[in-house]
Amino acid sequence: ETGVTQTPRHLVMGMTNKKSLKCEQHLGHNAMYWYKQSAKKPLELMFVYNFKEQTENNSVPSRFSPECPNSSHLFLHLHTLQPEDSALYLCASSQVVAGGGETQYFGPGTRLLVL
Amino acid sequence: GNSVTQMEGPVTLSEEAFLTINCTYTATGYPSLFWYVQYPGEGLQLLLKATKADDKGSNKGFEATYRKETTSFHLEKGSVQVSDSAVYFCALIGFGNEKLTFGTGTRLTIIP
User: Fold this and answer.
1) B39 touches chain A (CB under 8 A)
2) Within 10 Å of residue A12's Cβ, how many Cβ atoms?
3) Cβ contact A33:A55 at 8 Å
4) Tens-digit pLDDT profile for residues B43-76
């Protein structure tokens, strides 16, 4: 499955580092999402971009900064993270139409470890 | 708000056994329902979906039927294989909504 790609697949960073996660979708979709998957916790929706506009910020700390330069690319900029931010970060995309309810397709994720 | 409840795991079965993973939901209106699968070390893959009552989604031998009267979307497979070992997530999107609500996931292990 190569519809949604994410880089890097693995990332180790210190608490003072700045890094960025990249997501690219090749499905022609108009909406993109960031999710966080931590051990023993439900999947958490972080951000939603619809037609490049952020439509959802699910009370995410400001040390996570999303960027959506176009409908195919989504970034998550990271700075001064905490060890509890270690998780699998998943990107997804969908084609949002009137009435909603469209299928989201996920990338393979970036496994982040904050030391 | 919307919610999804899945049976607690982990579930361990022998190869060729029958599988059922229960999923019930709470939502207003008519949501779309999904099962996603996450293999070890990977992201989520869409397994199957159903968008209206009495629809049956199917893929790779797995099936689930959208039951509005019982607000359920149970996942079934007649004969599981070792390669089916993964975490399975039930999810829904409410009508007119773009937010996907997930269950907590059920870890399935198939032993030879």
Assistant:
1) no
2) 13
3) no
4) 899 999 999 999 999 999 999 999 999 999 999 9
Rounded distance between C-alpha atoms, residue A105 and residue B80, angstroms: 25
DSSP chain A: --SEEEE-SEEEE-TT-EEEEEEEE-S--SEEEEEEE-TTS--EEEEEEETTEEEEE-S--TTEEEEEEETTEEEEEEES--GGG-EEEEEEEE---TT--PPPEE---EEEEE-
CB pairs under 8 A between A and B: 60
A103–chain B Cβ distance below 8 A for any pair: yes
Nearest to A90 among B34, B43, B99 (CB): B43
In this complex, do A94 and B98 lie within 8 Å of one another by their Cβ atoms? yes
Do the Cβ atoms of A99 and B99 come within 8 Å? no
Q: What is the pLDDT of residue A11?
A: 96
Mutate to test the interface with B, among A55, A104, A110, A111 (most CBs of B within 10 A): A104
| pLDDT value at residue B8 | 82
pLDDT at position A57 is: 74
pLDDT digits (tens, 9 = 90+) for B2-31: 899 998 889 999 999 999 999 999 998 889
Across all residues in chain A, what is the average pLDDT?
90
Contact list, B107 vs chain A (CB under 8 Å): none
